[in-house]
Amino acid sequence: MKKLFISMALLMSVGTIMGQADKAALKQAQKEAKAEMTEAQKINDAILAKINEKTATEAEIMSECKKGQALISKAIKSGAIAENRIGEAYKLSADLALQPHNLMLIHASKKEPFDTVFFYSNLKTMTDALQGELKNTKVTKGETGNEAYIKGKTFNLAQCGDYYIYAGQFNAAIGQFDKAIEAYTTAMNYTKIYPEVAGKAELRIPVEQIAYYAFHTAHEGKLYDKMDEFFDQAIKFEEGAVGTKQVKVASYLERGDSTAWANYIHDMTVKEPQQNTDYIQMLIAYYLKKDKETGSDQMMKYADEIIAKDPNILIAQYGKAYKYFESEKYDEAFEAYKKCTELKSDYYDAWYQCGLCKYRQALALNSTISTIKNQAEAKKVLEKTKGIFGEAIPFFEKARECAPDEPQKWAFELRQCYSVTGQAAKAAEMDKLL
User: Model-level pTM?
Assistant: First the structure.
């Protein structure tokens, strides 16, 4: 029993010693924080006096404010400032950040060099300090109250949202892409981060334009995940929407992910085919190459998806026609090319290909005649062949109308068709053009 009492006594003794040590440490921390705050205040008062007297140099302002800022920042972070002086400490921090901030803005307006990295860190210090002051200062009304002062501080904090846009631009210009994106993100979410100015902060440019800047900054820095985060808002900035979409698409190839590139274009174009015809053409070309390698009909499935959404998408109809023609399915190719001429009446290539479908069918049929032993049957096939050559003529002539000054594109086939169908004079006319 005696041993138990001794143990308990020891524990109580240790606890008392530790409690005394904690109190001593806290007292020392409070003493240091008070001294740091006092010294920071002296620095601030001295430099303000020189500024008012117009005797302070820019270098002195920057140096002294940084020195004072380091002291007050250390005091605030210690958590040892007396509760009734926390608002005062944040006010001092904001005051020490304000003078360098104004100087750097003057340089920026004159397009003169300045420390852009410090501009951003100082800005964060200033806005956090303004917020801290507002949170820790009790509003009092009446003639001797601080209500007007607090409104002024709230206005100052509200104004700073625009400065984060500047910080983003400054950091992007020197290749500090992560900091630039951080600054843009703060600007975009300013009233969430600083709810004290909700309904009071109006940025000089819309959020979608800031997202546009952030998106392209992320692309420049190859921060592709960040690009993806900003895209949905950036694309809403109409003035830059085309370029934003182009960069988004190109970024997948930059990442070396052609599958993601194809999937993205697929989903985008199927959703809005009329607005993305150039991308439809790109993806059709990609699928055609892929189909040759794998033997699949991915392009045809894609073209059908587009046509189901909008049958008037010319490049989708042409893609199907091309695939049919390549597979020697000339009847299907002819109908698809004909649809293209309905969509674009001056489409040389579609008219020419319609004629070529008939021309190829006629050549194929003609090659069988020599294998037919029955002369009557062979004659029937010959007449049919001539008829198909004749069917090709109107389409080649339409192609001629579309490109009258380029006979090398249509004269050879027309000469053949006219020759086979017994139109010697017209065949000779084509011969002269070749």
Answer: 0.80
